[in-house]
Amino acid sequence: MRGNAEHAVVLGAGMAGLLAARALAGAYERVTVVERDETWTGRARKGVPQGRHAHILLPRGQQILEKFFPGVERELIGGGAVVADPGVDHHFVMGGHRLVRRAGAERAIQTTRPFLEGVVRERVAALPGVRFACGRDVVGLLTDGPGRVTGVQVMPRNVGAAAEEIRADLVVDAMGRGGRTRYWLERLGHESVPKEEIDVAVGYASRPMRLALDARIGKAVVVGPRPGRPKGMAMVAVEGDRYLLTVAGLDCRPPADEDGFLAFARELAPPEVFEAIRAAEPLGDIATHRYSSDLRNHYERVRSLPEGLVVTGDALCSFNPIYAQGMTVACLEAEVLCRCLDAGPRGLTRRYFRAVAKALNDPWRMAVAADLSMPEVEGRRGPAVKVMNAYVDRVQAAASRDADVAEQFFRVVGLLDPPAALMRPSILVRALAPVGRGGDSRAGVREERAAV
Ligand SMILES: Cc1cc2nc3c(=O)[nH]c(=O)nc-3n(C[C@H](O)[C@H](O)[C@H](O)COP(=O)(O)OP(=O)(O)OC[C@H]3O[C@@H](n4cnc5c(N)ncnc54)[C@H](O)[C@@H]3O)c2cc1C
Prior knowledge:
452 residues, 35% helix, alpha/beta, nine-stranded mixed β-sheet, disordered C terminus, D-Amino Acid Oxidase, Chain A, domain 2, FAD/NAD(P)-binding domain
């Protein structure tokens, strides 16, 4: 199909929309990216309010991004992105266990979300045939009856402007969590799209800061939630000689006032990290965000989907942000779209939704299982989830003593390997081995806390 079809329109210029545009360029003569925000300032923008919070790109996302945009890592680093060796520069506490990592296993590229998106956006804008139509709200789909989507209706944001129609051979919804395609389809008479939803009510609060010159806390400190304490934090070095501190909690709202924010961070941060936070120079306000639920739309289960439509990113499946999967999953979805385009135009919509559902299964199950390990989250815990969560706890405990287990664990949560990799005999044996006296790494973490 590459190079044959005429026009594709992408709705939304967030990470998923940009990656979809990259997948489509070359397969369509023209690709139009429609976006409601008018300007890019390099700061978090209105259409992507989550851009003020820490955004970690998982290793698999890093790989795919470099494949899509050769040299992008170098470009990010040239622009100020922080390069970290997780084995040396990161401090990770998962499930209450401080994980040990080997130096030199991989390198992490750390940036803010607006910076990363800005670099990717420039790369996409330079692709042949791609243009941006900004300052426009997508307000509906155009169809030629029930069988085919033929474009979109958009409303320019400038006062008094008239609605416009953009005709296209393919429409890609990348409008994020608020994307309305499922409702538009219903309004056009299609059956409703089945969905799965887990209420998590995650509250976020974040602030950029500059550490004192003598602060020594490495390049990222991540403390994940655990059963009984469903709160977490990430303190991440990013471009501009800054750190971004994000705190989050399930079923709670981290405070946006100075004292409350610090008290929340103090509950989670190792003592030396909290001291660095307390002594740091704040570089902006404390931003908050509320994320209600994990949400997966099962378009692949709809029998009568119109051709000419695909959905990607958070509009298709949105994950509890605590697990940092969203941008990497958008990369995986763009890869799926590329493969489907390579196989030709026939039945593209159905083939895409089937293939992308398979790609989503592992990250979705991992996120949902992790959420259900928290007693605060409501949902059915079948035997498979219970066994999996008990086992993951053992893996995390083993990963606090054994760098091989830790590397395998990070490859799975980094979406480089499937969860089944944790069941390899070499990992099983170490995870299930009895732990000697004093071997429970959680005790160490508690002592660290008590000293704060
Ligand atoms: C607090 C928080 C922290 C997160 N942390 C991480 C992390 O650490 N790592 C990670 O990988 N992911 C993280 N995520 C998830 C990540 O932000 C998204 O999954 C990822 O960016 C993909 O989003 P998207 O492009 O689908 O949607 P969005 O980023 O929401 O972009 C949607 C775009 O569509 C535009 N748009 C919406 N409606 C319309 C319309 N009607 N007309 C025109 N344009 C429209 C918006 O302006 C926006 O530009 C986090 C999310 C949250 C909420």
